[in-house]
């Protein structure tokens, strides 16, 4: 079997949509899982709407998602001369023709057909079989010679066999009168020249496949494997839009989801491997196949995303988490952390990453290590540090001074102090949380003390007692 080559071919007219990100992911998984190549092409032929900023956003989004592509990024616009060359080769083959019909003539033809009761008239050019000797010295377009009878069958690995009546296909334009190629031609030429073997894309392109297949046939080229995947819908089952929340990939980074969780979640949107929900990249690449893609639109489910996100945060190595957290802060326009804060956060990660579903939640748990003395108290912490509690902390501090800084030893010292005052450990934990973090909802008191260390812990307790 020849090498498998897939591609992602976005138009640089805006942000990278989450649906586009999933399409890229499916192509990446299929190529990587089969030892093939994953290529990236920017379809920038629409010069009015294509922008360098949108291209940069697409590349940034794919890079964050961890989808590495092979070779250079291809610009479709830069290949326009090659597209024109193929159009003229089809002319020479007799599978395309010059059409000199004006816009007015085409409009008049359609109006006449509608008057006859034809709802969607297909333009029949009078130049299709015209003698070249009759060609006028006038602007022309190059049109494909579409089959007039029979059926075109798209053998789709997701949708099954899709049959299109050829009488509904027009002689589409492949080269405009100004010499620029149309999308339908450019896509096929690029895919052929890039060696693309599998075209995995949204099912909104399914109707295009019949027209594009005609170009392959006209040039005698091998038709790629088609796989048209259903679109992503919102939780209400309607087409995904901004009213459902985030639709741009970069928004998910700014919301604090790790890239591994997004890969896992997007892979599960419309594709399944048994009942597996949480899986690694290696597993996804080994398992991903086209028959596992469903035909129905997938529904975005933020609860499932959050659940997977929490699992990935808990499973990630601390050294891998740190750069992602810092990148999240940058994406969310949060201030940089000092080196001391970074060092402290790295020490705190084993304590705070459990049960944190997003990076904002994780950083909220890590507030105690990111804040500095004097510790600002929130209203509940103020209440917890009443005069009685402050007196107990002032008694506790010298006892901790000489304690061995190990969890069981710290627990014993604090339990002794609580017992002396006839209160339970829980009664002293509240003031301790307030003193160490300025809040009453924190990680375990002992976890915080171990992360903060003896000197910083005692300094905070002294401040609170005073």
UniProtKB/TrEMBL annotation:
List keywords of the entry alphabetically. Aminoacyl-tRNA synthetase, ATP-binding, Cytoplasm, Ligase, Nucleotide-binding, Protein biosynthesis
Query: What class does this enzyme belong to in the EC scheme?
Result: ligase
Q: Name one Pfam family in it.
A: tRNA-synt_1c
Q: Where does ATP bind?
A: 242
User: Motif 'HIGH' region residues?
Assistant: 10-20
Cellular component aspect of the GO annotation:
cytosol
Tell me, which GO biological process terms does this entry list? Answer: glutamyl-tRNA aminoacylation
Q: Name one GO molecular function term.
A: tRNA binding
Give the subcellular location: Cytoplasm
Q: Which Gene3D superfamilies does the record cross-reference, listed alphabetically?
A: 1.10.10.350, HUPs
Q: Which reaction does it catalyse?
A: tRNA(Glu) + L-glutamate + ATP = L-glutamyl-tRNA(Glu) + AMP + diphosphate
Q: What is its EC number?
A: 6.1.1.17
For the motif 'KMSKS' region, what are the positions? 239-243
Q: Where is the Glutamyl/glutaminyl-tRNA synthetase class Ib catalytic domain?
A: 3-306
Annotated membrane-spanning segments are none
Where the record annotates domain Aminoacyl-tRNA synthetase class I anticodon-binding, the positions are 338-464
Q: Which residues form the signal peptide?
A: none
Q: Which NCBIfam families does the record associate with it?
A: gltX_bact
Tell me, in a sentence or two, what this protein's role is.
Catalyzes the attachment of glutamate to tRNA(Glu) in a two-step reaction: glutamate is first activated by ATP to form Glu-AMP and then transferred to the acceptor end of tRNA(Glu).
Family according to the record: Belongs to the class-I aminoacyl-tRNA synthetase family. Glutamate--tRNA ligase type 1 subfamily.
What quaternary structure, including any partners, is listed in this protein's UniProt entry? Monomer.
PANTHER family assigned to the protein according to its UniProt record, in alphabetical order: GLUTAMATE--TRNA LIGASE (PTHR43311), GLUTAMATE--TRNA LIGASE, MITOCHONDRIAL-RELATED (PTHR43311:SF2)
The name on file for this protein is: Glutamate--tRNA ligase
Q: Name the lineage.
A: Bacteria, Pseudomonadati, Pseudomonadota, Alphaproteobacteria, Rhodobacterales
Gene name?
A: gltX
């Amino acid at each position: 079997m020849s090498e498998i080559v897939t591609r992602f071919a976005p138009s640089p007219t805006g942000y990278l949509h989450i649906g586009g990100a999933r399409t890229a992911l499916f192509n990446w998984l299929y190529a990587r899982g089969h030892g093939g190549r994953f290529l990236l092409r920017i379809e920038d032929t629409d010069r009015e709407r294509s922008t360098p900023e949108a291209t940069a956003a697409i590349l940034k989004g794919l890079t964050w998602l961890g989808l590495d592509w092979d070779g250079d990024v291809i610009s479709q616009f830069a290949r326009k001369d090659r597209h024109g060359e193929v159009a003229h080769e089809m002319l020479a083959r007799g599978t395309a023709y010059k059409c000199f019909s004006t816009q007015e003539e085409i409009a008049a033809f359609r109006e006449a057909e509608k008057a006859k009761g034809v709802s969607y008239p297909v333009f029949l050019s009078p130049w299709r079989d015209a003698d070249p000797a009759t060609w006028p010295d006038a602007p022309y377009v190059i049109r494909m010679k579409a089959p007039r009878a029979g059926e075109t069958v798209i053998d789709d690995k997701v949708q099954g066999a899709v049959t299109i009546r050829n009488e509904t296909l027009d002689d589409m334009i492949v080269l405009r009168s100004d010499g620029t190629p149309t999308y339908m031609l450019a896509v096929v030429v690029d895919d052929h020249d890039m060696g693309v073997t599998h075209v995995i894309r949204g099912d909104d392109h399914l109707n295009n496949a019949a027209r594009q297949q005609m170009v392959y046939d006209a040039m005698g080229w091998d038709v790629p494997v088609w796989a048209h995947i259903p679109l992503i819908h919102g939780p209400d089952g309607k087409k995904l839009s901004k009213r459902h929340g985030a639709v741009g990939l970069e928004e998910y980074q700014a919301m604090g989801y790790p890239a591994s969780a997004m890969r896992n979640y997007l892979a599960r949107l419309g594709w399944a491997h048994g009942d597996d929900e949480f899986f690694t990249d290696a597993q996804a690449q080994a398992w991903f196949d086209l028959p596992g893609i469903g035909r129905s639109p997938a529904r975005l489910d933020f609860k499932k995303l959050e659940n997977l996100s929490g699992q990935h945060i808990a499973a990630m190595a601390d050294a891998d988490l740190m750069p992602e957290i810092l990148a999240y802060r940058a994406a969310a326009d949060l201030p940089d952390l000092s080196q001391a804060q970074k060092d402290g956060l790295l020490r705190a990660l084993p304590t705070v990453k459990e049960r944190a579903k997003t990076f904002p939640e994780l950083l909220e748990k890590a507030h105690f290590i990111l804040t500095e003395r004097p510790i600002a108290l929130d209203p509940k912490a103020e209440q917890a540090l009443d005069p009685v509690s402050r007196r107990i902390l002032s008694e506790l501090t010298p006892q901790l001074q000489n304690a061995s800084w190990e969890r069981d030893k710290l627990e014993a010292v604090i339990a002794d102090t609580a017992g002396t005052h006839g209160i339970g450990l829980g009664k002293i934990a509240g003031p301790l949380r307030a003193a160490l973090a300025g809040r009453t909802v924190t990680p375990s008191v002992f976890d915080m003390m171990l992360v903060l260390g003896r000197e910083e812990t005692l300094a905070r307790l002294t401040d609170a007692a005073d």
